Input
Amino acid sequence: MQRIAAVTARLYCLTAPAYETAMAPVFGPLACDLVQGTPPTPADTVLDLGTGTGFALRQAAPHARRSLGIDISLPMLRAAAAVCAAQRWPRTHLLLADAATLDALADRCADVVFSSFGLGDCPPEQALRAAARVLRPGGRLAIQEWGPYDGDDDPRLIVDETLACYMTPEAAGLREEFRSELTRPRAWEARLQDSEDYELALAEAGFVGARATECRPLTLHLSVEAFLTYMLAWASRALEVAALTEDARREFLALAHQRLQAQTDADGLLAWSPVVLRATAIRRSV
Ligand SMILES: C[S@@+](CC[C@H](N)C(=O)[O-])C[C@H]1O[C@@H](n2cnc3c(N)ncnc32)[C@H](O)[C@@H]1O
Output
């Protein structure tokens, strides 16, 4: 496993216990919308790369012949397994594997590949080639990753800038490791910055008919509490908050709350329409 994947695995091991509930208001609707745009048929074998707790998988599974969620983090897969077991979906499986290589999967084993924010830590060319290899010719791909922030008004930036005012400069161990990961450009975002980059990378990886768009597929209506819960459930931020003194933590939370509250609508909700880069493509026939 590559070093970047090992750091990512640690991040998700620590984030997993809170993920299913804290992330659902953001990742749930976006995953649903992605799958609805490329609906599986009852004959399809579906893969969900970087499945996490399975937001895209659970949307696809009831409509597909077989579905397989792939993730590098065992705790995330355990959470996904709990959801799958509760729903009693037949023919739904989970696999611990690196989406950058998909070594454990045979060529042409899938009809549809989804990934909803699951590839952002992978080297893009390698991950897209792996996705192309496991798709049958004519098979469909639908993926999305975060697009650019909305300048100073982006609620994620508001939380991070507020937290930065309280963080101590020193950090050790995992905090230090996560901090350097957060400031290091990720290979995916560095190489795939706009829809043209996506379309070119998909064509080079063996896809045809690639269509990529920078879009705002949904407006999420979130309470300030739900948004803060989402942001602070990430282990990288949770560790920073846990390291604050009690007074600093209280002040940080009050200030973040106040700044976000200033962005809410008449119903007291944040109407957040995040930009995503979304792409669909067809596996080239050989
Ligand atoms: C932002 S979460 C998205 C999870 C899920 N798709 C969703 O919509 O909530 C990214 C997921 O990708 C997984 N992941 C990151 N790098 C991976 C890799 N190289 N191979 C497989 N999974 C990976 C993480 O463990 C995590 O569960």
Observations:
- Residues 3-22 form the longest helix (20 residues).
- Strands lie at 45-49, 66-71, 92-96, 110-116, 135-146, 207-215, 220-222, 270-272, 276-283.
